[in-house]
Amino acid sequence: MFADFAKIFIQSGKGGDGHVSFRRELYIPNGGPNGGDGGKGGDVIFEVDKGLNTLYEFRHKHNYKAEPGQEGGKQNKTGKNGADLIIRVPEGTIIREAETGKIVADMSGKNQRVIVLKGGRGGKGNQHYATATMQVPKYAQPGQKSMELNVTLELKSIADVGLVGFPNVGKSTLLSRVTNADPKIANYHFTTLNPNLGVVDLDGGRGFVIADIPGLIEGASEGVGLGHKFLKHIERTKVIIHMIDAASVEGRDPIADIKAINKELEAYNPELLTRPQVIAANKIDAIYGDTNEVIDKIKAEFEPEIKVFPISAVSGKGLKELLFYVREMLDQFDDAPTVYEQEYNPEDYQLGIELPYTVEKIEDGLYSVEGPRIERMLGYTNIDSEKGFMFFQNFMKDNGILEELENLGIEDGDTVKIYGHQFDYYK
Description:
Spo0b-associated Gtp-binding Protein, Chain: A; 3 domains; six-stranded mixed sheet; five-stranded mixed sheet; 9 helices; 18 strands; 22% strand; elongated
């Protein structure tokens, strides 16, 4: 079964906690701290698998979690790092943040392996906190929290050329004749269910990838039939081939069909109409009467803006001219596939870079400070220790929080509430 959309939950591994321990050996009853660091949590990595062409595997499994790092041990032993989680996807998969729809990564071009969520850092063991005045530190740093994200996976086919047309105009027959693809071919009025890709081999190694884009019928851009589901597969293409039934075997008007499909493309994404187009007027072997008269009528409507090639996908007539013309059109572009830029960096959002903190005056003598960066920092800082509290104060100063409190009129002795903690303020 073909599947080109999925929604999953991903989570990196939490960092292992630092360890609190002291050297205890014979004749050394009061040895120094020797607690080891925690291991790093596993990353969540997306990797292109050339053998995949569908997102079917994600229809039954929706939760993906990397391993956490292990806690540090005695004798300065560092905890084991958590194993990375590698999620394999077809080339052309776009990863989006589920709520906003912003692009996290496009698994195309050079993006064959992307770290989407980084594992948490391991916490430092108590060996790092020994000072001249604090020789027996009973504090170790907790491991950094994991990162988590709901994402959607959307497969947009990687093809140089998109083949569009109404059902039963001969697209599958053309694809099977000029490429290595093996689409199902039959005389039916409903559309192919899978976007079929094939490689056209031309002399001199100048081939290209062509995709039969199914589902294009009137109303496709509004979700009628399968159209909206499959229109996404044409977005990466550089050239569009309109295939029409020039013989009007089923009584359709080929000129009206081209206009209708262009209308659907424009409604879905107006930028698609800026792509070069060519018309493949198929089934000329089935035209009754004067073939030239039919073709001349189509040419009069669309040329010179869109070149028309009379062809027969069954006999092969006209295909060579069509394919070499398409190759010439592609030569105007670079060979790199269309790759969508990143719009959403999970690390920025989950570490609170977008919204560092909020400082509010609740009432006279009482202030509140909140923000994801502050909450995260409190998670791995022991503010009950002298060293940890000094680190916390420096964090508040370096991030401009103390200055903002002063701008709000805070005075010595006033109370500051921060996520369940209360502090008296003094300059």
